[in-house]
Amino acid sequence: MGTTRVIYKEDAPSTSFWIMNEKEYPILVQTQVYNDDKSSKAPFIVTPPILKVESNARTRLKVIPTSNLFNKNEESLYWLCVKGVP
Prior knowledge:
- This protein is mainly beta and 86 residues long.
- Helices cover 0% and strands 45% of the residues.
- This is Fimbrial chaperone protein SefB.
- Residues 2-86 form the Pili assembly chaperone N-terminal domain.
- Keywords: Immunoglobulin domain.
């Protein structure tokens, strides 16, 4: 990944980040976003949720909110899980 944090601004329709496959073989990548308890889904999706990244290639993933029920007076923490399988 090109970052350790992805920040979503409430007035934006989405945010994005880059992932890079530095291996000499393609990988299958799966992404999910979890609530702070790490067991339930967060009000975001990552698109594409599953993709193939060729060797020495990079691609951009987009984080999109699934609801607009955010508290405007406080920040929230969610966990972005990016799994790579050779």
